[in-house]
Fold each of these.
Amino acid sequence: MEKKPLNLQKIAFVGGGAMAEAIIKGIVGSGLLAPENIFVGNPTQKHCDYLNEKYHVQAMSDNKAAVADADLVIFAVKPQVAPVALTEDLMGAMKKGAWVLSIMSSISIEQLHKYAPDCPVIRTMPNTPLAVGAGMTAICCDELVTEEMKADAAAIFGCCGETEFVAESAIEAISAISGCGPGYCFVIIDALADAGVRAGLPRALAIKLAAQTLAGSGKLCLESGLHPAQLRDQVTSPGGTTIAGIHALENHCLRGAFYDAVQAVLQRSNELQGK
């Protein structure tokens, strides 16, 4: 199905790192906006040259030049860099009526308004699988955001994976699940592959088996609409091999480990925010 074009003439990114590149790849690849209408401010000229050559966008080392006349400015710097990158001079270079979308994980809508007063603000929580078009992005908006802006945000992240509009109060918990979740998944893949090597499989094959099994199981869960427990039951025969493996996992407190992981993330997040 052909995607509806964005209600935008120009998008500017402040920051051109991996997450910004994943979004640019999705926008350009899906035809949502012509690459010549995508501008990127990034401090390293070598990286600007890379983005220009690979995606044919307009990347430059001058953030103010990048955001000039942009309808949407995407804040894509690391949170700790925000005070240095998102200056009053930069905000002054933005055109009247521009709106802001942030992918900075720990910066609240209230904080974003301090950087960009009077601008409609959308805060998002994407994850790294955006890079392969399989991301999960939570989106929350302030009261100034219009339905048209929401539609554009959904389209931008929809071409990189799945999206959900949520209340900002849910963002921290979402970060602990889908934001940090790829890290948990890579640990599972690595551990399962190690188990395969121990069982006599070549390393490369063991990794492929583990990674594809995790990816396929997630796809099956999403597309079937069945509860994970129902899908587990479909592969778990009475007295069979799978239930023996699940029994071993339960004996090692797999569920408790995930509960603790999510709580540890929330606790650490609160510490970083001084709560």
Amino acid sequence: NLAVDDLNLFPLLYWPIRSDQPDLASGVAERLDAYLRQGGMILFDTGDAATMIPGQTGTGAGEQRLRQLLVGLNLPRLEPMPEDHTLTRSFYLLQDFPGRFTGDTLWVDHGEPSIKDGVSSVIIGSHDWAGAWAVDELGMAAYPVAPGGERQRELSRRFGVNVVMYALTGNYKTDQVHIPALLERLGQ
């Protein structure tokens, strides 16, 4: 419950946004701002990639509702996720980030290097990742994924692992390029 629970206990919040998402309760925007400033991360998922015309962005009902909800938040500037973003390699090497659906842009805040080591605190997409991850009581996939079938579901799971690793470890993977220089300094 965003209005009463201690959000700092959760390094990552997955927030599916639907067109009928209720307005934020009083004080929730301030709590979310504090959470993000203190290092928390939110993955917003509008889940409406399947309803949008290919090549069209920003027209889904979930995305429109998300824009309305975020008006009260003090968010950093958002940009399409760069190809070299740490999220592409925080555990698995990924180029795409499908869920039940695929093809839409993944947005991240432009993490300033001097703030939280440049780690993005907001990720926004529309691929319905939880729908791709969901299983029924028999452990079978609860929802179909399209157009890529089970390979797409596996990539969706890998994206989920990357998001959790990124939330827990930040951008340590970008520091890996410095290992040869560090080892040389240590005389090894």
Amino acid sequence: MCSSDLQPMKRASAWSAVSRRAVALMVRPAPERRARGWAAVASLVLVIGVFDYLSGIEISLAIFYLVPVALATGWFGLRSGLVVAAVCTLTRIGCDQLIVLPDPLPAHTLWNAGASFLIMTAVAWLLHTLLTLHRQLEGEFAERTSELHASVADRRRLEREIIEVSARERTAFGRELHDELGQHLVATALASQVLAQTLGAA
């Protein structure tokens, strides 16, 4: 395989690693301190809002608001994601209003803000659905894994019991064989001595 064939595989592997890290970030349970998680989400909204204000009304940074919406949905659930989507939309409208003051906002700006709110809502719902399915699959996987471990442990216990029973049976059989065969041999030896004495006397 030449090096040019390895490049797509390396890129796919790198993309897979990045996506695994992103899913792990979203799937893990809410931070132990909810306040810290909310502070991170609020800080992101604030930073994006500042850059949105600095970029002016002509350049839209609406796509960047998806990051805090996704984090809030992954960490705190769908309702929190929808609340953050509404806050992001209001932040965007407020930044645009500050830019055009004292004039009113153009109608297309409000239309764009409404459309971005619908997109953020749809993304939050899709992400919540995917994460719920992912958590269910992880739960089923953990349950099946524990069942498999229990099954393997039962099989090993049964194997040990079979080995112990067969060892006991072998020991008992050997003891019985020794006792019965020993008695027969002693009886045969006595009978042969008696027969030898009888033949010798005749």
Amino acid sequence: SIPFLETVRSARSQEERVRLRDELYHRLLEELIDEELIRQAAQTLEIRVQQSEVDRAIENVMRQNDLQPNEFWAAVREQGYTESQYRADVARQLLRLKVLNQRVRDRVNITEQDVRREYDFQVRRVTRQLRFRASHIFFPLAADAGTPEVTRVRNEATAVRASITDEATFEAAVEQNTGGELGWLNEGDLPESLEAMLQTMQPGEVSDPVRGDAGYHIFFLHERERGESQVPSFEEARDAIYSTLLEDAMGHQEQLYLEELRRNATVVRRL
């Protein structure tokens, strides 16, 4: 919640600060209720977390981040936690995981067909996307530029465009102005107005000046292709897709289980 507190402090008005503070209090209260329900469920199920399990979990985090113990605990302190607080938080997370694995894991069944269906969906989505390899000449505009400045920059871009007849003259214009190679761009990487221009172009074509968020651009389209080459094989993607589907399904079942615990509990909120 420390980052959220920083958001509250940086609010622009007292009204916004109060709203964000109330949201934080509500979120923390709900988290505390869930934590207590999980703790009670763990008692009923006779589930406990051993200190050795906490140690192993912390060692795994160190190994995954390639940190020595002194480096790791220094990073923890920078986040505003003491070692005992961090260990207690890890223990709570492990307890929650154990309870959920025992109570909801058997409700989740990710089949090979599910993984294949998701893979096919991702393939269709990627192959519908276009990729562009482009260069541009950029004519910057200040965010608060008035009409005279906008007109001046647009006229400058138009004059430069008139001097370009092919890739060689485009490259010469790049050297005399601001711009260069943009590399491969996927759909969505650029603002809609700029992307719309690239979608109408053919390889080897130079665009007219087009207005973007920060100024005018003249594009040269080197190549355009569908996204098939970005698609890994099913065997390469299978484990990652399975993990994602399992995580999503477990998250959904976790919410259902917590709702079930709340229905069977008496929750009294005192604010």
